[in-house]
Amino acid sequence: MDLLKSVFSLASPGGAKARLSVFIFHRVLPLPDPLFPDEIHAGNFDEICGWIAGWCNVLPLDQAMASMKSGTLPARAACVTFDDGYADNFHVARPILEHHRLPATFFVATGFLDGGRMWNDTVIESIRLTDLPALALGDLLGPEFAGVPVASTVDKSAAIGRVIGRAKYMPPAERAAFVDEMAERARARLPGDLMMTSDEVRAMRKAGMQIGAHTVSHPILATLDASAARSEIAQSKRALEGILGERVGLFAYPNGKPGVDYSEESVAIVRELGFDAAFSTRWAASRADTDVFQIPRFTPWDRTRFRFGARMLGNLRVQDS
Fold it and tell me: Which of 100, 109, 95, 96 is nearest to 78 (CA)?
């Protein structure tokens, strides 16, 4: 037996003492991106899926939640999830998952379906596609952004990190106005096909994958009042149920850091709206007593089999509290 698989069997036994690893992904690019050299692309995603399939018993997410509650999870239990609803999830990730016979759950921010674009992608593509040597954003973001260099790949990569870091926790309306103005100043023609269409969401479900809600506009829920947060969560649930013609019982918090990106109030709203489970981005593996509305998720960032497995093992040992 594979040595790592044997170790995982000890660290993640079946039954009452089981630990559930939930992997989180976002994009799977068809080819490497010079602006994001660490972003997962088809080649390394295929490798990762091979490792996961070889080491783990990968379950559909709803089945894993039920098994965890009843104490019947198998050894080395795991689930695969994706956030946001990118089109490459359907066109690139899905065929690889199917090749490895891995089920997955896709959490979709419904406001970006059918030609929409997430705010961070407006920033990324504005900087990627501009022909200008610098962007003047000082009046929008502060004097340190007066002339942001964007001439080279290195400049563009640095600028994307700075601008997204500054804009991430703006109030949603202010952030939307900012990215629109930034795109105008960049003088770039932005893509409208980055996210899935409603037809692709339906096709994903027909292919045997599961679909979960991820709000409408991907806000930081902790920054919203209760009414706005409830609307974001409830409307995404209803929209997906309309697209799929079935109940949607799974939810993932945008960004997903407990106490920073979502609050106890957010958790209460998700519970009150009738979801079965909700998912954070806190590192750990779940166990039978884990709060089902704050299930942790984690993916090693390593690109070699041994290091990926070793970091996954380390995450299994994190004390979930």
Answer: 100
CA 132 to chain centre: 31
The letter for the amino acid at 209 is M
- Would the CA dihedral through 20, 74, 101, 3 be positive or negative? positive
The correct CATH number of 3-114+200-316 out of 3.40.190.170, 3.40.50.150, 3.30.70.940, 3.20.20.370 is: 3.20.20.370
Helices 264-272 and 226-244 sit at what angle, rounded to 10 degrees? 40
169 and 182 Cβ atoms separated by less than 8 Å: no
φ/ψ region of 304 (left if φ > 0, alpha if ψ in -120 to 50, else beta) reads beta
Whether the Cβ atoms of residue 78 and residue 57 lie closer than 8 Å to each other: yes
pLDDT digit string (tens) for 264-290? 999 999 999 999 999 999 999 999 999
Domain ranges for the chain: 3-114+200-316, 119-186
Q: Closest Cα to residue 213, out of 118, 291, 113, 109?
A: 109
C-alpha to C-alpha distance for 268 and 157, rounded to whole angstroms: 38
Q: Which residues of the chain have pLDDT under 50?
A: none
End-to-end Cα separation, the chain, in angstroms? 32
pLDDT above 70 as % of the chain: 99
Contact 251, 278 (CB under 8 A): yes
E-assigned strand segments in the chain? 21-25, 57-58, 77-84, 105-108, 134-135, 148-149, 210-213, 250-252, 277-279
Per-residue burial over 12-45, b if 16 or more Cβ lie within 10 Å, else e, is: bbbeeebbbbbbbbbbbbeeeeeeeeeebbbebb
215 in Cβ contact with 168 (< 8 Å): no
How far is 100 from 158, CA to CA, in rounded Å?
36
